[in-house]
């Protein structure tokens, strides 16, 4: 479809209305009818979606809901890789591009569905030769290269539970996640490449494993020349794959068997291992990838997220591949070697669906229109946003400058815990800048007060989900009580932790986090992890971290530090503390400011009240402070 030219401004009601042909050609042509159909028979709705996929055995019941626990597709048997790979080999997509990789230097690697399936089978057999069995936990800590996706799918093929850790995390954060998951094997690479610099991933793993004695083997993808030497406990990725046969029968998995653990930063303690299962997650990500992005066989989808985050799991790997899409991945960063790097990829590769974070959009806005104007972006037909609220100014720039005023924008809201997109503006529906949209068919959302009562339209409240959905988390690994907190914080619903406003038209504006999680450049940073790194320094007695609004990154981290008596703050100490956070947590988590203070606001029970620090920093009313210690 050739989209119509730039339509200019929004209509008097504040909506952008896409070319009618988008709705006519969309998988979901009538949002209201689809949503009413879902409400009329929720189980029939999801049964219809699940029926589009391949199963070894069908379900006895679509959903068993025993608040706050759900079981989806009860008794069904499947393997997600059959739907991501085998189904397409038999369905005429064997020679279609499944995966296209672009390196920092412009080099490319392309995998058809047949080639990707062969690679997955070979690596899966390699894992089995090392003794990996169904249910074993495998940590994957890799750069964004095809082998990372091969490793994920190979684990799923044999029923191993993968735990992917973002390659930007430091050794302490990596070690915490390895230990909590009880991982017995780590898959990594010798190096990653970022902005022309070499990242020593293997060294970080080695340091992390000093505190993770349960790991028996490390598989290493060797990229450097000459290849690094390996110890007897280490296995070469390429050799393991070459030794594996090209046929690996998929493990028959129960729909409720765990598929993966993915850690999201906690607000008051250690990172939470979110557990997603095979059947419901497969159905939810397939459905949302296909319908929210309106994937067609001619499309090339570029989701810029790393699989170390849930967005990469759901919309780089499992959802798009289940939908039979062609997927682009790249190790490049948006401004290296210049701010036109990503637009060159769009032009060269013919990207049609582009899904990125508001922080990247705001960064491009800072660089100006001259960079995208150098490239032909005419292949784009759908734009997406994820990770944090897309502010109206960024929407306008994205819509006009990148989309030429004609590409629909799907501004999506969802979480690691939800597994799939929950709220957006479906293709063909009017777009309202600043508003993510409405709950997708299949999801029930509301904005309520602390007691669970609906708030009036236009008033802020807590965003909640009022019923189960297939891709929902099943538990927090080894901490089911923490899972229950999601459902008991506000009665009879799942509490997202976000504040929101819902208007009379049903459109929802997400305002941001209502807890102590900081979203920096679309990445969830737990205040507890930053604070733990700071107090690890011998000069620090206590620390607190808050997020400060930033026009480019969404938020930056500011830290408040109390020093041990006798210690004096100076620029060198500040640099040392920033370096410590960088090493132990992540470069994304490094505080841009550190303020040395004599005291921190606390409740009488000793809990630091970060909202008071944030209110003071922003010059706003801190609210009720009656519980603070005098």
Automatic annotation (TrEMBL):
GO molecular function, one term: acetate-CoA ligase activity
Coiled-coil boundaries: none
Pfam families for this protein: ACAS_N, AMP-binding, AMP-binding_C
Keywords: ATP-binding, Ligase, Nucleotide-binding
SUPFAM superfamilies: Acetyl-CoA synthetase-like (SSF56801)
Boundaries of every AMP-dependent synthetase/ligase domain copy: 90-470
Keyword Ribosomal protein attached: no
EC number(s) per entry: 6.2.1.1
GO biological process: acetyl-CoA biosynthetic process from acetate
Signal peptide as annotated in the record: none
Cellular component, GO, one term: cytosol
UniProt domain Acetyl-coenzyme A synthetase N-terminal: residue ranges: 31-84
Domain AMP-binding enzyme C-terminal: 529-607
Gene3D superfamilies: 3.30.300.30, N-terminal domain of ligase-like (3.40.50.12780)
InterPro entries: Ac_CoA_lig (IPR011904), ACAS_N (IPR032387), AMP-bd_C (IPR025110), AMP-bd_C_sf (IPR045851), AMP-binding_CS (IPR020845), AMP-dep_synth/lig_dom (IPR000873), ANL_N_sf (IPR042099)
Family designation: Belongs to the ATP-dependent AMP-binding enzyme family.
The protein's name: acetate--CoA ligase
Taxonomic source organism: hydrocarbon metagenome
């Amino acid at each position: 479809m050739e989209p119509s030219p730039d339509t200019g401004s929004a209509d008097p009601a504040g909506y952008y209305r896409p070319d009618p042909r988008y709705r006519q050609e969309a998988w979901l042509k009538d949002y209201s009818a689809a949503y009413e159909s879902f409400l009329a028979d929720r189980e029939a709705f999801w049964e219809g979606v699940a029926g589009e996929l391949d199963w070894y055995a069908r379900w006895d019941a679509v959903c068993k809901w025993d608040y706050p626990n759900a079981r989806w597709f009860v008794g069904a048997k499947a393997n997600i890789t059959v739907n991501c790979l085998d189904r397409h080999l038999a369905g005429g997509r064997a020679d279609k591009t499944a995966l296209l990789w672009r390196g920092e230097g412009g080099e490319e690697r392309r995998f058809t569905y047949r080639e990707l399936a062969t690679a997955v089978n070979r690596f899966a057999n390699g894992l089995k030769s090392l003794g990996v069995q169904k249910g074993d936990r495998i940590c994957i800590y890799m750069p964004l290269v095809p082998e990372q996706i091969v490793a994920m799918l190979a684990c799923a093929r044999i029923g191993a539970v993968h735990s992917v850790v973002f390659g930007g995390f430091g050794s302490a954060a990596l070690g915490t996640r390895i230990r909590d998951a009880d991982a017995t094997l780590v898959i990594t690479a010798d190096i990653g490449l970022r902005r022309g610099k070499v990242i020593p991933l293997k060294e970080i793993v080695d340091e992390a494993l000093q505190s993770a004695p349960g790991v028996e083997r490390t598989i290493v993808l060797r990229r450097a020349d000459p290849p690094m030497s390996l110890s007897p406990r280490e296995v070469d990725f390429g050799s393991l794959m070459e030794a594996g046969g090209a046929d690996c029968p998929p493990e028959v998995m129960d729909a409720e068997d765990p598929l993966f653990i993915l850690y999201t930063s906690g607000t008051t303690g250690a990172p939470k291992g979110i557990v997603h299962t095979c059947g419901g997650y497969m159905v939810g990500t397939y459905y949302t990838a296909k319908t929210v992005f309106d994937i067609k066989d001619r499309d090339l989808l570029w989701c810029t997220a790393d699989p170390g985050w849930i967005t990469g799991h759901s919309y780089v790997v499992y959802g798009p591949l289940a939908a039979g899409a062609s997927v682009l991945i790249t190790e490049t960063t948006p401004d290296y070697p210049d701010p036109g790097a990503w637009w060159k990829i769009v032009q060269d590769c013919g990207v049609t669906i582009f899904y990125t974070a508001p922080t990247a959009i705001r960064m491009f806005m800072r660089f100006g229109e001259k960079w995208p104007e150098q490239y032909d972006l005419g292949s784009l037909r759908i734009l997406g946003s994820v990770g944090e609220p897309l502010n109206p100014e960024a929407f306008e720039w994205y819509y006009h400058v990148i989309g030429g005023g004609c590409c629909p924008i799907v501004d999506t809201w969802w979480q690691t815990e939800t597994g799939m997109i929950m709220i957006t503006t479906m293709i063909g529906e009017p777009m309202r800048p600043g508003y993510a949209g409405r709950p997708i068919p299949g999801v029930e959302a509301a904005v309520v007060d602390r007691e669970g009562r609906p708030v009036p339209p236009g008033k802020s409240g807590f965003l909640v989900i009022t019923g189960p959905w297939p891709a929902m988390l099943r538990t927090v690994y080894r901490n089911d009580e923490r899972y229950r907190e999601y459902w008991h914080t506000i009665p009879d619903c799942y509490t997202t932790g976000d504040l929101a406003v819902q208007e009379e038209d049903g459109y929802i504006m997400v305002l941001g986090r209502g807890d102590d999680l900081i979203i920096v450049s679309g990445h969830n940073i737990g205040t507890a992890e930053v604070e733990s790194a700071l107090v690890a320094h011998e000069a620090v007695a206590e620390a607190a971290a808050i997020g400060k609004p930033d026009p480019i990154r969404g938020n930056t981290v500011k830290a408040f530090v109390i020093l041990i008596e006798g210690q004096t703050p100076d620029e060198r100490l500040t640099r040392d503390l920033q370096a410590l956070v960088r090493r132990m947590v992540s470069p994304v988590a490094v505080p841009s400011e550190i303020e040395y203070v004599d005291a921190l606001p606390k409740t009488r029970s000793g809990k630091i009240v970060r909202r008071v620090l944030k209110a003071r920093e922003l010059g706003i009313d801190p609210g009720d402070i009656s519980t603070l210690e005098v």
